[in-house]
Amino acid sequence: MTDYDVIILGSGPGGYLAAERLAAKKLKVALVEKDDVGGTCLNIGCIPTKTLLNSAKLYAHLRDASSFGIETEGVHINWRQVMAWKEEVSKRLRRSLELTLKKAGVEIIRGVGKLTDGHSITVFPVNVESDALQPSLYQAQTSQSSDYQSPDSQSSNSAFMIRGQKIIIATGSSPIIPPIRGIKDNPAVLDSTGLLSIGEIPSSLCIIGGGVIGIEFASLFSAFGSSVTVIEMMDEIVPVMDSQMAVELRKALKNVTFMLGTKVTELEGKKVLFENKNGEKGSTEADIILLSVGRKANIEDWGAQESGLEIKNRAIATDDRMRTTLPGVWAIGDVTGKSQLAHAAYRMAEVAVSDILASQNSERSNQIFVPETVPWALYSLPEAAGAGLTEQDARARGYDTHVIRMPYNVSGRFVAENGFSAPGSIKIIIEKSSERLLGIHLLGAYASEQIWGAALALERRLPLSAFRNMVFPHPTVSEVIREAAWSANPLSGTHIH
């Protein structure tokens, strides 16, 4: 049996960051992974999706380039090359990550890990064809979960046990499959992983679920020319968004039909049957049906319940330092149910690492994970992002609020690059008496690159005046934040053109 200072189960964003940080402190670290290093985000989630979205954005810009004096007659989509580039990006980043981890001294163990107790993990080896050290090639990557077998179905003769003084659980999440009649064995039905591997652009796409993943795919494929229908049970898309901004986003998405307050009742091949909240029934047909109703924490098949870990709300229960109820065991990322954002997993990893290092000296870290200050970003066309409370949440909590709104077209750079009619706006929610920032929400180009500053201001509990006194480079779209802050002041004037 091999002993380690720390064993990490899962190599997604939280897992690999924790491994690298701990190894940098000269700890002996093992990273157990059954698939490709990098997890869902790098291989079948964030990165490949954003790569395709960028191709869609380029195509949309070229298609509309005549407004900016550029003639692009004959522009067309080479879907095979689009997909090849998507695979190449993930492959190169995966290779770089694996090399970085090995250079740091992290031991990567290929297999399915099962937690035996607070210090032991049984590993069931799997055969993963890693391309981490292979030449870069334009070819499809299909290794995710292809050789997976549950521990119970594998030969116990090949299994081995490893021990760690500390263990970090980072097993991630997986798509929820709703109990809709007609889903099983339906070739027209795909999850997000399957949609990232299709051989051609569908002429029509029906998306069940209007959350972040569903809206990103709706935006992507509508930009490529697909006719897209989004069916959402809730009254509005993307629950994390401010409702006013969500309405603006829906209006900005072209070639997308939204059916809100509507439940899918059955699938008949490519036909989707539904019923709205008024009891009205109908149907629609599409070449592909995407299931995008959320993700669930991966708490099965690795010994969560058997080892005595507390399960709460179908996720691993942790405190704000990411400690579980089992001494010596931490949990980070999607499996905790606290957030399903890659950068949230990064932060959880940093908090857990800090606590582990402090525990070596019988101390306790002062770093904690605060979900409310984690920003979110939606990489649609246009982008959306936010941090803190929405207007409706702030009022529900009893705050006496003041709301500031401003269009992006006050920015000369935004207009120059996107046109006068491009959608874009900022919304700031403050506490009226103190001017303390409660929430900031952005819609428009570059929103994902601007929101970090808002998140920092919220975490530091800064007042609106912090943005008034900040120097922004000119001309930038981010100046809209400063101008919106000044608009709440009698001396304000919109002048950033």
Describe the structure in your own words:
The chain has helices at residues 13-24, 39-44, 46-63, 79-104, 192-195, 212-223, 243-252, 342-359, 391-396, 412-418, 447-459, 465-468, 479-487, and strands at 2-9, 29-33, 107-115, 120-125, 160-169, 173-175, 189-190, 204-208, 227-232, 256-260, 262-268, 271-276, 281-285, 288-291, 295-297, 311-312, 315-316, 329-331, 376-378, 384-388, 401-407, 425-431, 437-443. The chain has 497 residues and is an alpha/beta fold. Strands 1-2-3-4-5 form a five-stranded mixed beta barrel. Helix 1 packs parallel to helix 4 (79-104).
At the fold tier of CATH, the topology name of the largest domain is: FAD/NAD(P)-binding domain
Structural class: alpha/beta
Distance between the termini: 67 Å
CATH architectural label of the largest domain: 3-Layer(bba) Sandwich
pLDDT under 50 segments (min length 5)?
Answer: 131-155, 491-497
Q: Main sheet: which strands, in order across?
A: 1-2-3-4-5
- Number of E-type strands: 23
CATH class of the largest domain: Alpha Beta
Mean pLDDT reading: 91
**What is the overall silhouette?**
globular
Determine the strand fraction and express it as a percent band: 15-25%
Tell me the radius of gyration.
24 Å
Estimate nothing, just give the exact number of structural domains. 3
Tally of DSSP helical segments: 13
Largest sheet, if any?
5 strands, mixed, barrel
Q: CATH homologous superfamily name of the largest domain?
A: FAD/NAD(P)-binding domain
Helix percentage:
25-40%
